């Protein structure tokens, strides 16, 4: 998410039941509301009630409102996590500065009412700097931060919990088979279990094809199973299945197929994992363990235009090291996949900047403006997971205002509104000072 002087946010309202990184000065907010078809509708199509009637020239019903944000301007962050956490608040954590490569562990908050960014004072077991991690909202008031890589490009496998009410970090003692350290993976919640899928790891950016979960009632990790290999993808839970869509392959190709794993009826997913323990405090394990990390966070001195400095001096004990040997066993439960080749309603994953969010059995695909495509190629499409059929909801020119690039996407807990965060492509079109364009979240 990134934009000049005062961040901007563009928001698109959508109907229903998680994208790239950063902190920014620009937000998208607003737009038409998508509502489901009538109960008698066989395909549960989405309608935009205030969309223009055919023959009319107005397209305002499709177009979200672009809003500048104010306050403490974020840096031009890449691979941060951006999460809507209820109460009209979006939290951004971590990431690295695109221009300095400094890695951060700051917590930033955007108030969606005042459109103000602020740097959050936080306490406790403050995690080390990281990027490419996941942040998952749990029980409405906690963020579960897992994995990522630090300033030394070491892949992490730790879990840290941020209490949104107290701004306090805790690092629970976990047991079970600690998963491989990873970044640019996906995480999704199901029945008090945090499922982790894929990502990259190792010195050669090895692409992982595994799935495992952390039982949040006992903080016990399951073993890892083989599922599907990819990174920079997204994962969703619908109909007792874990769905995986998008991302990149080992060959760095953008992937347009969808995979799903049935969880229902598999004892491995229904019961608490029972494996050898690893106590982070004692360090005893079958694997090479590390003692519980000790974190320190110095007050960030303001530098440059971003308003804060990278906290690269924080201590981070490396997680257990792993040897990438044989693949894990195939995941229990039925594994299925479907590849979308081409069609008038299928958004091509190979071009443009895509954001995927999930809402009530439907995957939404935002194809946003990018240097490689024209505004006409942008779109908003939906994939119904029950029927696996794509439907184009709006053309790009109808929903995306020219002159912006969008870098992050997040959705509210009801699945009724999504926000894109980004920056203008022409810094001279804003009231920024010299170089101001480079100071914002990306």
From TrEMBL:
The record's annotation in InterPro entries points to: Kelch-typ_b-propeller (IPR015915)
User: Ranges of Low complexity compositional bias?
Assistant: 276-294
Keywords, in A-Z order = Kelch repeat, Repeat
SUPFAM superfamilies given in the database record: Kelch motif
**Leader peptide range in chain numbering:** none
Q: Does the keyword Translocase apply?
A: no
Q: Which protein is depicted?
A: RING finger protein B
Please state the gene responsible for encoding this protein. Answer: rngB
